[in-house]
Design goal:
The chain has helices at 9-14, 37-50, 62-70, 87-95, 108-128, 135-138, 145-152, 160-181, 189-194, and strands at residues 19-22, 53-56, 75-76. With 195 residues, it is mainly α. A three-stranded parallel β-sheet has the order 1-2-3, with helices on one face. Strand 1 (19-22), helix 2 and strand 2 form a beta-alpha-beta unit. Helix 3 (62-70) runs parallel beside helix 5.
C-alpha cells in the first residue's frame, strides 16, 4: 500500500510483492492538484519496470477515472467504478461487461494526463537516444495524439489551448534541432519552458 503507513519505498526494496496499491491520498485530489499526476505516472512506471501490477485507489469521479486510465492504470478502486454493494447487487455488477476504454480522454483532466505522459516519453527519448527524434516531424502538431484528443474534446483550431499546443511543438522541435547540432550544449530550459 504505497504512500501510507508502512508503504515506503524501502519496503518495496526489501519485501517480496506482486502488486503495488497506490494510496487514495495521491489520487483523490487530482482535480484540485493535477500536478499530482506526475506521482501517479511515476508509480505506474515503477510498477511496469518491476513487472508488478498497480492498483489505484481513490478513483472517485469520472474526471479522475479518465485521467488515471490515460496513465495506463488498469486496476482501479473507487466510487467512479462502484460504491460498496450488497452481495446480490455485487453479483449483478460483476456480470456486466468491463468498462471500455475510449481512444481519447473524455475530460480536460484526462487531456492533461495524456500531455504529461506524452511529454515524459519525448523527454526520455531525447535524453536517451536523440537520433530517434526528427525535429522536422515534431513541428507538425497536427499529427500529435494530443491534437486529436483536443479535437475530440471540442478544442477549436486557433483557440488559446490550440495555440499553446502548437508553440509547445515548435519549442520541442527547436530543442531537438539544437541538441542534434551541438549535443554537448544541453540546455533543458527550453524543455521546461515548453512543458
Amino acid at each position: 500500500d504505497l504512500g501510507s503507513a508502512y508503504g515506503s519505498l524501502m519496503r518495496l526494496k526489501t519485501l517480496p510483492f506482486d502488486k503495488i496499491k497506490l494510496d487514495q491520498s495521491f489520487v483523490r485530489t487530482l482535480e484540485k492538484q493535477p500536478r499530482d499526476l506526475y506521482f501517479v505516472n511515476t508509480v505506474q512506471d515503477l510498477s511496469t519496470n518491476l513487472g508488478v501490477t498497480l492498483v489505484v485507489e481513490g478513483v472517485e469521479t469520472k474526471d479522475i477515472l479518465d485521467a488515471v486510465t490515460v496513465t495506463g492504470a488498469s486496476l482501479l478502486q473507487g466510487y467512479a467504478i462502484a460504491r460498496p454493494l450488497p452481495l446480490k447487487e455485487l453479483q449483478q455488477f460483476l456480470q456486466r461487461p468491463t468498462i471500455e476504454r475510449s481512444i481519447y480522454p473524455q475530460t480536460f483532466l484526462g487531456l492533461y494526463a495524456l500531455h504529461l505522459s506524452l511529454h515524459s516519453v519525448l523527454e526520455k527519448t531525447m535524453r536517451q537516444n536523440l537520433r530517434l527524434m526528427d525535429y522536422k516531424e515534431m513541428v507538425d502538431s497536427d499529427v500529435c495524439p494530443l491534437h486529436r484528443a483536443m479535437q475530440h474534446l471540442g478544442v477549436s483550431e486557433g483557440s488559446p489551448l490550440d495555440r499553446r499546443h502548437r508553440e509547445y511543438h515548435k519549442a520541442i522541435a527547436e530543442l531537438i534541432h539544437q541538441l542534434s547540432a551541438s549535443p554537448e550544449n544541453l540546455d533543458w530550459c527550453i524543455m521546461e519552458e515548453a512543458q
